[in-house]
Amino acid sequence: MTLLEIRDQLDEVDQEITRLYKKRMDLCAEVARVKIGSGKAVFDPKREAEKLDTVASYLDTDFDQKAIRELYQQMMNISRRLQLSIMTEQGKTFDTEYHKAGSCIKTEQDGVKVVYQGVEGAYAEIAAREFFTKNSQQETDYSHVETWKDALDQVMADAADYAVLPIENSSHGAVTDNFDLLLRYPKLSIIGELDLPVAHALMSVDGASISGLREVYSHAQALGQCRTFFENHPTIKPVPVLNTAVAARLVRDRRDPGIAALASVRSAEIYGLRVMQYEVNESKSNTTRFAILGKQKSYTENARKISLCFETAHKPGALYNVLGNFVFNDVNMLMIQSRPIPEKPFQYRFFVDIEGRLDEPKIINVLNGMQDQTTELRILGCY
User: CA-CA distance, 241 to 174, in Å (whole number)?
Assistant: First the structure.
């Protein structure tokens, strides 16, 4: 046969496959209607495993058996998504604690209490003031604690209404410890976020000079964001501390011209330090994303993002199948971050941000689909 003749026959086969595919989907739609009436679950793992074994038995070679399993696995995923979409149209929802509310910000008469880690001048304080100036009409009381865990404990104990937590930086990546920390507080939710442009200034006491510095103190992330500075000044040692503003206060208290801090310009003003160099960070578009956490399981009509955490079975294709729910439902994934599961060596959980709101049909379809394909699924917030 010529190439053209082969292609003509392939076209005929594809037409037949397409016809049979449509017939199969029509039957799957009928299955969905039967299940709606009976209350049966969409996902039947035993039935799917039997089907994969059956279709594989029709073929002889290992390659063909593996290929037909992959093909049918995807067809069954598509069938399941079709059934879920029909059920959503018939009123099926994803069971969640979250509810739509007029506002996610508390409006008690005594004002709003916000806690952050560090001391005055910390970027978390700057983020908190910027967020609540924009989003709350109430008087806001700001306080600080030593660690991020302390901040979340304050909210859990009702000593504060909200905590401000850095999640990721545009040039240095995720604040991984804080991703892990989110899971330790299932009663807290992300109710908002703020992207804060971050410009680290090098500061010290009067009389200090860059050429005379021995050490520079700052948070580990800030030191990493200023890597080029340390490459250009190899005799200066970067020293990590809990917080950028803590570094500035330390430099003030020691009064040593041989040490400096990398912190916000606000920190220099608060602690009476002289700025020796502005915008030391490598990326001039350096931005840190802060999450605002509170106890409310609510979201507003203008919410545009959902944060999720999930775990999958430890087997080939598990993550691929979960992420397929986003593709199939035209949901944009904004971020994905993996973190090790301590009690399961070399297995990982995933943090994902997607565009959407919890009451949208396509999001309900995504969550229902994910629920069947994950071993654990948690909504961290809709905001």
Answer: 18
